[in-house]
Structures are given as structure tokens and as C-alpha cells.
Amino acid sequence: MTALLRAEDLWKSFDDRAVLQGVSVELAAHEVVAVIGASGSGKSTLLRCLSLLEPIDDGRILLGDDDISDPRVDANRVRSRFGVVFQSYNLFPHMSVLDNVTLASRVVRKEAKKDAEARALLLLDRVGLADKAREHPDRLSGGQQQRAAIVRAIATDPEVLLLDEITSALDPELVGEVLELVRQLAEDGATILMATHEMAFARDVAHRVVFLDGGRIVEQGPPAELFGAPREARTREFLARFTA
């Protein structure tokens, strides 16, 4: 498959601490790739670098045919091609859910408010939040807030959806409703790169799983292979924590 998003030999350090060390990864259109690894392995930094929220020290990032790591690119224009969802929701507390969802469409893409809101209401209805459209985020549960954040990310039809540990801040009973929405997006053909601790979800939904450890890719492959018969000892050691 032709790569829609491709990272080549990415390096990133904070002060003297190397966080990404020669990471190369590809994502094809309509593919779901799960990035797994312990906390501090570099998963969040990888996603932030891919979406240009963090500059890389070395390497190259291609989105389609465009080298988006070229320092001459318009970073804001590139970021508008991604939908990014973080673990901490990041909804604007002073705005209604509807205003949060339509903000990028109205401000960045200059879409008419009426059109942006009509699309947003359809999406919110799809995830069971139509009745919360006029509410402020503090009136929503954590799961509802995260679903609203995902709707905000997909409202502009991004080329790639980057999901960064989106269930880690949720109470256990709310995790399922958020993962079900991601499952629906995957079934609809979204292109998703997802950093996650949810091993069962990665096994069941992802087309490919990447195991990141110490800022390096140790192993990657189809879920059945990586979870069922991992080649590397470090992968087996990591997965043993979830199956013991």
C-alpha cells in the first residue's frame, strides 16, 4: 500500500534526553496503526512530531507527496490536514460543545457558520451528543467530553487522525464508549495512528501494531503476529504484563 503518512529516521531530544531515536513508520490511507509501549517510550512525542506540534531534530516526515518537515512549510496549514485528539480532551471551557466542534471549520477553513453547525450537529447526533450541543464541557462526563473532542477532530475531514492515549484519563466505565467510537471510525475507513495502552483494542481493531521502547521501534507487524508470536524478547516481556 502507498503510504499516506511516512516518517523516516526521526530523532528528537529534550535537553540531553533522546526521546525518539531513528524512528521510521508508515501509515497507508484507511489503515489503522496502533503504537504501543510503556509510559515514556516516546509514543506521545512521535504523534506530536508527526503533527508538527514538536519540531524534530533530524529525519523527514512526508504527508502524501509533501515533505512537511521542511522548515519552509506553513505549519498551520499542515496541521489543518490532521485531526489530533489528546488524553486530556483540550476542549475550550468557555465555549459550547457546538462552538468547540465548529471552531476550526469556521476560523481556519472559513466555512459558513450555518454549514459548519449543520455538519457538527449531524456528527454529534451520531455519537449520542446532539442534546449536549449547547452545553459547556464542564456539564459533560469525561467520556462525553472525549467523544466531543473526537468529533471536533473529524469535523474538518482530516487526512489523518492522530489519537494520543485518548482513554488514559477516563474512568474505566467510560473507556468502552470512546473506544466504540474509534472502532466505528475505523470501520468507516478513517486513517488512524493511535498511541494506546488498550491492548485488546489494538489487537482487535488495528491493521498493524508498532511496539516502541526507549524511543526505538522494537517490532511491528499484524496484531495476530505481534501479540500471538512476538519475535523480540523485549516485546514478549512487555506483553507479558498484560497477559499474566
Automatic annotation (TrEMBL):
GO molecular function list: ATP binding
SMART domains attached to this UniProt entry: AAA
Cell compartment(s), UniProt: Cell membrane
InterPro entries reported in the protein's UniProt record: AAA+_ATPase, ABC_ATPase_HisP-typ, ABC_transporter-like_ATP-bd, ABC_transporter-like_CS, MetN_ABC_transporter-like, P-loop_NTPase
Domain ABC transporter: 5-239
Membrane-crossing residue ranges in chain numbering: none
Keyword terms: Amino-acid transport, ATP-binding, Cell membrane, Membrane, Nucleotide-binding, Transport
Superkingdom assignment: Bacteria
Pfam families per record: ABC_tran
Membrane-protein topology: Peripheral membrane protein
Keyword ATP-binding: yes
Family under the similarity heading: Belongs to the ABC transporter superfamily.
Protein's UniProt name: Amino acid ABC transporter ATP-binding protein
Species of origin: Microbacterium aoyamense
